User: What shape does this take?
Amino acid sequence: MIALDAKLNFDDSALFRHPDIEELRDESEEDPKERRAAEAGLNYVNLGGDVACMVNGAGLAMATVDIIKHYGGEPANFLDVGGDSSPEKIAEAFQIMLDGGQAKGIFVNIFGGINRCDAVAAGIVEAAKIISDDGKSLPVPVVVRLEGTNVEQGRKILQDSPIANVIMAPTMEGGAEEIVKRVKAAQ
Assistant: This one.
């Protein structure tokens, strides 16, 4: 048996110990969104569909992808914002997901333990200010399910915001069903 091709991934946190390996990096072979996300401290994987997913934690990301599929949607990505979600980081996540027009809708599914739901909500409002001309809309429907630390403050921020196309969902199941329905209706 002869290996004719291979793809290797290296843990970025240890590359400083191996400058010889870092020199082999070919950024032209990397997904630009994945590279941009990594620079912002986000984890992003393109999945090719049209329902973008922003979550915190790999387990929740996998469950979110599965439930979107369950309701007939096609996940566009897996974007994990991690545990330190500042409003600026959330706004950058939105810009990455919307770049290129692949996402026809966004499902934000946050279970805030370390993450604070109010910071995530403020980031969504900030994203609308950055992305839209009037600061009051996003180019695609956004369904948000928040649960955990400062959830009531986060929900209030979104309810009081001028953003027209953000829909609150009380459950992960309801949120996934709603975003899939809205994306399909727009096609």
